[in-house]
Amino acid sequence: MLNAEQILALAPDAASAKAGSQLATPGKWGGLGISGEAMWGECQGSGKVPYRTQIDLGEPAFKCSCPSRKFPCKHGLGLYLLRAGQPGLFSDGAAPQWVADWLDGRKTRREKKEEKAADQSPEAAAAAAAQARKREDKREQNIAGGLRDLQTWLEDLARDGIASVRERGPGFWEGMAARMADAQAGALGNRLRRASGLCFQSANPDWERQLSAELASLYMLCQAYTGLERLPPALQSDVRALVGWSVAQESVLAEPPVADRWQVLGQYTADEGRVRARTTWLRGLASGRWALLLHYSTGAQGFDVPLLAGTEFDGALCFYPSAWPLRALIRDQADTRPLTGAPPAPGLDATLDDYASALAVHPFLPAYPMLLDGVVPGSAGRATLRTADGRQLSLHSSFRHALHLLALSGGHPLTVFGEWDGACLLPLSVRQGERLYNIDTEFSA
């Protein structure tokens, strides 16, 4: 059973979380019940007929008779929060018919999907594979043409210099980003939009260096994709992923799993147009291995995996193919609980050595996890961290919580976790005493 923080992490937005919390009171509900599969209740709204709310505990999945288009709605969140806070209000027993019908329907749909996959004839499977290859070949042609245009665009920009890019306005970038979307390389379009944002950050004195590094990385990526067959197989997977090719989750989950006690050390959400992406960083307590989880949500739908910074779980992860594997999927997860101990920090020199080793095999690595112990924030809110031996680390220009760090520190050493880009650190969480604070920096594409 999830705790209150994990339940609220399922909310599609802050307004739903607040409204759901307000509904987690006994006076709002009737007919509360729970079985091994589901929980349910009826919430009295403004109309005569109460809203019927039900939760499939296996995923969890939500259904409510209210007209809300958010998922989960405030009633689903309120019901789940009420169960977490006052479990004695829920009577054990068989689900009422309206809940049983919903559960049966979900089970039937799952079985039909599995049967369809299992009963596909060899001829149908071969035809489907041929169609998939045809679509893949067409996309390869589209991407190749788009990358040629992007490479020419970058070469023109290099000749003109980046000093004039602010005068060209956002339309200069949006045109090429749209071209990448047309070429089915939307991931590169998103990177161009983020790069354009650097041009107009008037308070960022480092924007030229950051923009130059990003444009150089994009140019290298174009060249790498053009000569893809000459790269090692693992790096080929990285280049294809950065361009926008996806890997089926089934094939990832077929990889050998890595079992450990996984500690959730940082998390943030980025808005990418209609899609929100949630990045979660884990570290294996025994193996010391880092893992990156990506989850996506569209519209008002919440994230389907309730992970919360400052917790840990026993489980197994499967890693995506990569020259330096970081991205992973959860294969098994059990016994989620608050962190039971401080994660060991390897030290700055060891982390930088690991980062150098990673870049040697994966030169397109966008960010690297960095856990630092015994660092002190710069005084007066300066965007730096000072290590125990007096070295200074610059914080990323997008970081807006330097004073918050200083307040948590009070001038004393902290443990800070964040993403390192080779020049700056973007802090994502801070550990003070026995508590981990997740900063949850918001980004926009």
From TrEMBL:
Residues 119-131 have a biased composition (Low complexity). Residues 109-118 have a biased composition (Basic and acidic residues). Residues 109-141 are annotated as: Disordered. PROSITE patterns: ZF_SWIM. Pfam families: SWIM. The keyword Aminoacyl-tRNA synthetase does not apply. Keywords: Metal-binding, Zinc, Zinc-finger. It comes from the Bacteria. Residues 51-84 form the SWIM-type domain. This is SWIM zinc finger family protein. It comes from Massilia suwonensis.
